[in-house]
């Protein structure tokens, strides 16, 4: 018998219904079992197993080094914890840009080996053939436009994208292409709020923003950033809900003190 609770699961279809009902969609990243369990229990709608794992879990300076096997390991851990949320997994850099056959094989591995519910990839017209091929296998695809961190060495910086008319126009066209191809949602990262709001209004599928203002259909943040585990990353769009770095450091400091002073373990904490 399944041990999972009888809970109404979030699907790509329910996200569309939320947009139609003007209910905002909540999304966070997660990469492991324990945090995924907490945020799923808290009622998050979508969990993204982001390739930001490359930064916050592995300590790389970009998202480029993380491998497909590593993404699958993170996704398996997340899926084991989740009862309700829709779990979307990023295709890592180099696993889909080459050709659409490669993109489909990558996506199939993620769906089969991790039990993911959908995949996400970065780019518009350049990856359209891959998007269509993945969709043709029945795998739901989330797009990602604006600041696409896998292209950081092309952009050169993590500053706001699509401020200029030509780039904004391309972003609008790409968003429409992704919707027409059959993507179920799109992430817009670090672009002007007005542009993001326009895209969300023009599309029928949900648009989830990160640093894209309030006029979109939902918001996503990196879990370690909003919990204040990462300290040095402080973009304007980030709202920190905790300062876990400082709290954990203080707790570990007290633990060390208790050991050194032979206060821990006490009478009740031994056999
Ligand atoms: O990998 C990630 O965390 C992401 C979000 C920033 C949307 O793609």
Overview of the structural elements:
The chain is α/β, with parallel strands linked by helices and 271 residues long. Helix content is 41%, strand content 13%. The protein has eleven helices and eight strands. The chain has helices at 12-20, 33-41, 53-56, 68-81, 100-114, 128-136, 152-155, 165-181, 193-202, 223-226, 244-260; strands at residues 25-29, 46-49, 86-90, 118-120, 141-146, 185-189, 207-210, 218-221. The chain has an eight-stranded parallel β-barrel, surrounded by seven helices. Helix 9 links the parallel strand 6 (185-189) and strand 7 (207-210). The two termini are 37 Å apart. The structure holds 3-methyl-2-oxobutanoic acid (KIV). Residues 29, 48, 50-52, 90, 187, 189, 210, 220, 222 line the site of 3-methyl-2-oxobutanoic acid.
Gist of the model:
This protein has 271 residues and is of the alpha/beta class. The protein is built from eleven helices and eight strands. It has helices at residues 12-20, 33-41, 53-56, 68-81, 100-114, 128-136, 152-155, 165-181, 193-202, 223-226, 244-260; strands spanning 25-29, 46-49, 86-90, 118-120, 141-146, 185-189, 207-210, 218-221.
Rg, Cα atoms, Å: 20 Å
Can you give the helix content as a percent range? Answer: 40-55%
Q: Can you list the strand order of the major beta sheet?
A: 1-2-3-4-5-6-7-8
Indicate the proportion of strand residues. 5-15%
The secondary structure category is alpha/beta
Sequence stretches where pLDDT stays below 50 over 5 or more residues:
none
**Each distinct ligand:** 3-methyl-2-oxobutanoic acid
Q: How does the overall form come out from the CA principal axes?
A: globular
N to C succession of SSEs: HEHEHHEHEHEHHEHEEHH
Number of helices: 11
Ends distance: 37 Å
Number of strands: 8
Mean pLDDT: 96
Please give the largest β-sheet.
Answer: 8 strands, parallel, barrel
């Amino acid at each position: 018998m399944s041990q999972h609770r009888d809970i109404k699961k979030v699907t790509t279809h329910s996200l569309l219904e939320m947009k139609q009902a003007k209910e905002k969609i909540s999304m966070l990243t997660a990469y492991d079992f324990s945090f995924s369990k907490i945020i799923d229990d808290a009622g998050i709608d979508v969990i993204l197993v982001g390739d930001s794992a490359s930064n916050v879990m592995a300590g790389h300076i970009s998202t480029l080094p993380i491998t497909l096997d590593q993404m699958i390991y993170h996704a398996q851990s997340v899926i084991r914890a989740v009862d309700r949320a829709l779990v979307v997994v990023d295709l890592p850099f180099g696993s889909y840009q080459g050709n659409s056959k490669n993109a489909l094989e990558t996506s199939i591995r993620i769906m089969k080996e991790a039990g993911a519910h959908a995949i996400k990839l970065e780019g518009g017209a350049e990856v359209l053939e891959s998007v269509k091929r993945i969709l043709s296998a029945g795998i739901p695809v989330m797009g990602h436009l604006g600041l696409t961190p896998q292209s950081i060495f092309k952009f050169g910086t993590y500053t706001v994208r699509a401020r200029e008319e030509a780039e904004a126009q391309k972003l609008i066209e790409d968003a429409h292409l992704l919707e027409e191809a059959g993507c179920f949602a799109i992430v817009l990262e670090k672009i002007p709020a007005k542009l993001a709001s326009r895209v969300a209004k023009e599309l029928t599928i949900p648009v989830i923003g990160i640093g894209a203002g309030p006029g979109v259909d939902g918001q996503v943040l990196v879990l370690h950033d909003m919990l204040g585990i990462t300290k040095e990353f402080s973009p304007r769009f980030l709202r920190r809900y905790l300062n876990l770095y400082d709290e954990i450091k203080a707790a570990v400091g007290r633990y060390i003190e208790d050991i050194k002073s032979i206060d821990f373990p006490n009478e009740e904490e031994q056999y």
